[in-house]
Amino acid sequence: MPSTKTNSINQYCSVCKDHFDMEVIKQGSNKGVIWLKCPGCQGFLPHMPDEDVSDETRAQRASEKEIALEDLDVDSAKEYSDDQLYDVGDIVHHRSWNDFGKVVIKQRLPGNRRTIWVQFLRQGKVQLLEGVK
Fold this sequence. Notes:
Number of strands: 9
Shape: elongated
Low-confidence stretches: 1-5
Oligomer: single chain
Strand content: 35-45%
Number of domains: 2
Mean pLDDT: 80
Number of helices: 1
Radius of gyration: 19 Å
Distance between the termini: 69 Å
């Protein structure tokens, strides 16, 4: 009796926040896109080979590691406010959540808007506004 081997690729799911062996669902005709199905959330996502990943995505993946309080110099933390500007590596305190985090990514959005991604101790990775006037 022939065995059916499922074609799968190991990839990170941003919804589940974990790596899985994902079943190949469809190979698209445009630019060789391969579609995968996440076994965790059952969502569909395109295959992202590491060599095709942008520097920003690599930085984002590296920043997804959890942090501990010992990793943060809370004495030098800046109070978060959406009208302030921050640098990658800055330690911030979010007063509403009473949580400390580290700025891991800065982004410029359309309309000259800016955001920062902060990896918080309890909240996880959160996108926040910066430099609002």
